[in-house]
Amino acid sequence: MTTTTVKSGYGYADLPGLMGLMSGDEKHGPAATSTLDALWVLYDRVLRVTPERADDPERDRFLLSKGHGPMAYYAVLAAKGFVPVDWLPGFGSYESPLGHHPDRVLVPGAEIGSGSLGHGLPIAVGTALGLRAQGLNDPRVWVLVGDAELDEGSNHEAIAYAGPAGLDQLHTVVIDNSSASYALPGGIAARFEAAGWSAETVDGRDHDALYAAFTAPHPGRPRVVVARVEPKTA
Amino acid sequence: MDTMRDRFAPVVSRLLDEDPRVAVVLAEIGLAGFEEARHRHPDRVINVGIREQLLVGAGAGLALTGLRPVVHTFASFLVERPFEQVKLDLGHQDVGAVLVSASASFDWPSGGYTHMAPGDIALLDTLDGWTVHVPGHPDEAETLLRHAVAAGDDKVYVRLSVQSNAEALAVDGARFHTVREGRAGVVVAVGPMLDTVLAATEGLDVTVLYGTTVRPFDSATLRRATEAAGTDVVLVEPYLAGTSTAAANDALADLPHRVLGLGVGRRELRRYGQIEEHVAAHGLDAGSLRERIGGFLRATRVSA
């Protein structure tokens, strides 16, 4: 007699395989996986959201602003049960809800559609304001951006506003793979700090370091975690 | 008489009191009018500073949490500067907001072209699903603001102007209003253009329709009007000439018809001065309109 096990719990080790369903390749370069560890730590240990709670007003919000190269995102959403694993092989096809930039209307669990850079952080500011206005003080808002994405002026508007406004429900993860053409080392955290944010820079591949940075208290201030990973050109 | 913009803060302040879903997002402009409301609803009257991309993006974020954002600044900074935010943060995210502009096409001529936005509605026309209200009187502005906020999660644009007709009509937030009936053509006057159009068509045997909700375009009323008045149609709009020409053509697609679109010219005048001088420069005074409308309908001009 044979028994069939339906796999219900995916782990970090399964993510390369899930990404391989999209690309047909289990070897992924740094560019494809720059967000993978930060996403995994968030969804596995930090965010209070599940597929069952996807419409719960009290859920945490995760906004993927850096919508390019969303394979790691889809793999994590599949691992956590937001999207069926059997959607992954259709990645980017006409019939697939999973495009090369995510669409919130098509992807369960995706809080925003993204791709054009510089939209997620301003929307996250509004989301934090909207939760506060409704007395929803527990949900936290997370937004993931790329280091070069911070070049967009719209992000500067959001960073400069959120600090003085004391939006302490707001959290930004910057994946720093040194892809900005003009950047000062250490400049990302400094820019946020100058605007009144709580900031920390960590190794973006170190899960415990990410977790500690994600969960550090920051009363009265928004929080940014700069997750440094291999340079894009590596 | 007060202006449409004078009504904005009082009306929306009352809506803030009445409806816990309503939130106002400002970028400094118009803030003074919300001082009291901000005191009563500190979390629902939000000023993001002089940051118009954030203005629209934050409005979208509020909508994602279930609120009904009312987003306000001058038209140039509300529709044109953050246009991609209007397109993606509202449209692509599939959430709504009420955008309320001030300054219109040339409400402040001495301010120059930086504060003019005759192309706002043409620009919104590149996007799907927007309702556009162009009130012609402060009372109508009040009615249409209420319609806009009450319109579920729709995407609604309300265009406020200091140009105004003398009397308000009973607008319903949807249909064109038949002001005068004739047999030699249909003239559609939009918002603040009505009084001038009525003066310009005095003694002409034309039907005059009044539109304050121009998107969706009221094709049914236009078609019905052409049954008696024929299919020569003149649109007189207080923004870019020809903005609604395609909509009128679509409404009459299966009929032989002619459409003339009148409005603000595309060419930048590089002039300051007074509103009346800009009205005349764009050929939108009663005398010029009479000439252009009469010329277009010349085969059928009739004296009353």
Oligomer type:
heterodimer
Count of alpha/pi helices of chain A: 8
* CATH domain class of chain A: Alpha Beta
Counting helices, strands and paired strands, the structural category of chain B is: alpha/beta
Low-confidence stretches of chain B: none
Beta content of chain B: 15-25%
Strand order of the biggest β-sheet of chain A: 1-2-3-5-4
- The average pLDDT value of chain A, as a whole number, equals 94
Taken together, the total number of domains of chain A comes to 1
Cofactor (chain A): thiamine diphosphate
Pfam families (chain A): Transketolase_N
InterPro entries (chain A): THDP-binding, Transketolase_N
Organism (chain A): Streptomyces liliifuscus
Structure description:
The complex is a heterodimer of chains A (234) and B (304). By secondary structure, chain A is of the alpha/beta class. Chain A has a single domain, classed as Rossmann fold, CATH 3.40.50. Chain A is 32% helix and 12% strand. A five-stranded parallel sheet of chain A has the order 1-2-3-5-4, with helices on both faces. Helices cover 37% and strands 21% of the residues of chain B. Chain B is built from twelve helices and twelve strands. Chain B has helices at residues 4-18, 35-40, 52-64, 75-80, 83-92, 120-124, 138-150, 194-200, 219-229, 245-251, 275-281, 286-296, and strands at 22-26, 45-47, 68-74, 97-102, 130-133, 155-159, 177-180, 186-190, 207-211, 213-215, 232-240, 258-264. A seven-stranded mixed sheet of chain B has the order 2-1-3-4-6-5-10, with helices on both faces. The two termini of chain B are 33 Å apart. Classes of the chains: A alpha/beta (234), B alpha/beta (304). Chain A binds chain B through residues 57, 61, 103-105, 111-113, 116, 118-119, 121-134, 136, 153-154, 157-158, 160-161, and chain B through 20, 23, 25, 43-44, 46, 48-49, 51, 53-54, 56-67, 69, 84-85, 88-89, 92-94. Chain A: InterPro entries: THDP-binding (IPR029061), Transketolase_N (IPR005474). Chain A: Its cofactor is thiamine diphosphate. Chain A: This is Transketolase. Chain A: GO terms for molecular function: magnesium ion binding.
